[in-house]
Amino acid sequence: MHTLFQENRKTLLLALPLIAGQLSQMLLGLTDTLMVGRVGTVDLAAAAFGNALLHLPFSFAIGLSIAVSIQVAHWFGRGQLRDAGEALRNGLFISVLLAIALMALVCFSIPFLGYLDPPDAVLAIVPPYLYWIGFSFLAMVPTMVIKSFAEAQSEPWMVLWIQLGGVVLNIALNAIFIFGYLGMPSMGLTGAGVATCLARFITLGALFYYLFNSRRLAAALPPLWWRRPERTECRALTKMASPLSGQLLIEIGAFTVSAFLIGQFGATALAAHQIALTCAMTTFMLPLGLSMAVTIRVSHAVSAAQALRCRQIVLGAQCMGIMIMLSCALVYVFLGDRIAAGFTEDLEVVRVTVSILAVVAIFQLLDGIQVISGAALRGMRDVNFPTGILFACFWLIAIPLGAVLGFWASFGALGIWSGLAIGLALASVALSIRLWRKLKCF
């Protein structure tokens, strides 16, 4: 038991800056939503529609960053720091190519937004916002790779402070460009895109400065940056990133389709969905940061062939995850009306949001379980079978069931969210069973 508490302490110490870092990134979207919501319901609905589209390409960036984290953590666990540096160098090369591809994907998809049948008022203002956020991928994707490189070596603190600085900068730029302070014209939703883009590029510059001047990371930096990319390392990263991105596409895609379905119920339902999703994603950063620590620590334990330590890390993290998300669920149940009122003054939007947050409370508890299980499996480099589990639970069960509850049973947006919660419950059970079977065989 004493050893279990020691492992919990180590996991928590690594997880705290990772959680804070994830929350800081989430705050970029949260501040955008809060400030855009003050402009009007249509702008808030447009932000929901645009962000739903952006979540899909964003999943590829996350998949790459997780792959870099796993590769670096395994090399670090074995003491092969130069190989960890090569994972960074090749990961940055892939990140630039990926960012260009994602930017092109976003820009080329804009003329076809009308086929998704959003409200006309939303369609009129969302394209400029998407152009700016699409361009910011050139900064965002390399930022995530550098962040993963540092965190995989248990050096997350300076990255955290840089991210927090980016959040403060984004808030200031939001005020300038959304509301037209300091002589700038009021740009509304477009201003949020401009602010986020500028904040991301400045954050990337700060991370590069830290990377090249950090004594703690110096031993793992590649001696030659401008060599031709190594095919073996690029192939390994791509092979790992592809199913990881697939997992994220499955889950994020389910939320994207849900947003489009909810959009059929009107701007009020879509605005309520955006508020609930923003809240859910914000508190989800707590188990997500914990799961990132689990992936790193499980990778270290697996590379060192420490089976008992691996089990202790996973068990402790699952217990911590459940306690964290239970606390969040209670907040949504008892303070849902106050949370919704903080985003908008539209009473109908508040009413719909409160009903959704009641489902989010259950959803979050289940999500905390599945994200820890999935993270531990990633640390063991088991990524293909979990991808199939997530596909079945979300696309064969959650989406069809949500559509039935939302349209046929007339529950509206609440029905769509209920379907997602049921699918997530099944995913949590299946991934947990898979994890403990793998641990027994390790």
UniProtKB/TrEMBL annotation:
Coiled-coil features, chain-numbered ranges: none
Topological type in the membrane: Multi-pass membrane protein
Signal peptide: none
Cellular compartments annotated: Cell membrane
Transmembrane parts of this sequence: 45-70, 91-116, 128-146, 158-182, 188-212, 248-267, 273-293, 313-335, 355-377, 389-409, 415-436
Main location as per UniProt: membrane
Cross-referenced InterPro entries: MATE_fam, MATE_MdtK, MdtK-like
The organism's place on the tree of life at top rank: Bacteria
Protein name: Multidrug-efflux transporter
Keywords: Antiport, Cell membrane, Ion transport, Membrane, Transmembrane, Transmembrane helix, Transport
